[in-house]
Amino acid sequence: MTKSALQIARAAYQPKVPAALKGAVKAVEGAYTQSVADQDEVKKLFPNTYGMPVVTFEKTSSPKAMPAINAGVILSGGQAPGGHNVIAGIFDGLKSLNKDSRLFGFILGPGGLVDHNYMELTADIIDEYRNTGGFDMIGSGRTKLEAKEQFDKGLEILKELDIKALVIIGGDDSNTNACVLAEYYKAIGAGVQVIGCPKTIDGDLKNEQIETSFGFDTACKVYSEVIGNIQRDCNSARKYWHFIKLMGRSASHIALECALQTQPNVCIVSEEVEAKNMSLDDVITQVAEVVAKRAANGDNFGTVLIPEGLVEFIPAMKRLIAELSDFLAHHEDEFKLIKRSEQRNYIISKLTKENSEIYASLPEGVARQLTLDRDPHGNVQVSLIETEKLLAEMVGTRLAEWKKEGKYVGKFAAQVHFFGYEGRCAAPSNYDADYCYSLGYTASCLIASGKTGYMSSVRNTTAPADQWIAGGVPITMMMNMEKRHGEMKPVIQKALVKLDGAPFKTFAAKREGWALTTDYVYPGPIQYFGPTEVCDEPTKTLQLELAK
Ligand code: FBP
Hints:
- The protein is of the alpha/beta class.
- 45% of the residues lie in helices and 16% in strands.
- It is built from 22 helices and 15 strands.
- α7 (172-187) links the parallel β6 and β7 (193-198).
- α8 (216-237) crosses α9 (253-262), α11 crosses α17 (387-404) and α13 (315-337) packs across α15 (353-361).
- The protein starts with a helix and ends with a helix.
- The structure holds 1,6-di-O-phosphono-beta-D-fructofuranose.
- The record marks 199 as: Important for catalytic activity.
- It catalyses: beta-D-fructose 6-phosphate + diphosphate = beta-D-fructose 1,6-bisphosphate + phosphate + H(+).
């Protein structure tokens, strides 16, 4: 691999870790736990792993000698900056317990376990990837691990390699599957522990014990840098409105965090659109009003941030997507036999009147996206829907109407952008480099203390790393029952933006001012070397959520 100067210098970075992880640790158990909702159903489905206590690791002066252990690791789902440091943390943690321990990486995600595709991760390999972005050390994939046959097939290779613990690094769906796997292996006495690690740039895997998912910090900083650059360009030429869609799947955490970092003229928050029962038309009117007011002040430029999941949150669209999901889950084979050119009419003829009308009114591309391209978890791939174009076009049409009515006096020219993939593999910020390494190291402590069905947790992360708290949370604690592919399933509850939470309230208190004045902030690129207030600052979201 030819390395950049930054990559070479960055390889020497020593991630900061909680003080407790700097020597031998003991596991201290807290209170027994309950799932966040649907306790009876979740308990029934996880008889062996439900209700376990939260665990915290503390320093001990009497370490126990540990036998060597073989462990496996899987990167699952979308890339997120810091994944390699999680693996480095697991590796260093296992080696510190016993230098003969070994780590195996399964190639290209959960599919690697089922297909017996793996490689041993030696010190040389790990050193090549310390503090780098990407998941290319072993690759990632979206195969859903959910069937007993897959679990049994996986167990064959785990037995062959004498692997006693498996770490699954993934988002809410992958950690749900990790929990199902942990339960199954425990139920059959397989002798394999399963530990999860909270990954996703989307920031929607968080709760009382999991402050944030890794990658959110770096991805938001990359997007905010570019939004800031666009805002400076926009404030220089003063002739374009920029419609910027941001990744993040359902939740609007990324859009909200970028708004807090850059102070755009408009930021749509999907969760608010849903709570206010807004239609697409309402959203368009709201944006067009800001454009018109700025134009009245002579400002024919601005920025609009759009969360990629927006269409799923417009209540009428949500009802349509729910009916489509149910319908396609039950008629997938029949649907596949319909000619591509006939599919739209076929769907229109099968839906209820209200949904059929909305579906028929959608541009071809958006309609196709909703019916065809689902990911293996059944999710609509919202990152493929061109919401930014849809909004820019519809706002333009609305302004043209207002112009005829004499309600709008300006000029409107739009540019559209989508920021997603460019942030997912950036070199991790100090926060993500430190957090990920600590999560991995903590996973090795969970393995050493015999835990299974736990997610690695590192808390208090707005304080200096020395004061971070490492531990583990039973995954069942985060679960509830939800409809997936037309059936009720136990899943980790997705954390959406809370409208009564500090990040949204801070944004809501300032947005009117940001809409009309041009009060942009230009955060600049992530800094890896320099003063701590520049290099180590956590996200605004985390700072606001954890402020006492
Ligand atoms: P994860 O939930 O697996 O972390 O994926 C995050 C994400 O980047 C979403 O923000 C986005 O909607 C999706 O992945 C895109 O998926 P793909 O990489 O398959 O195009």
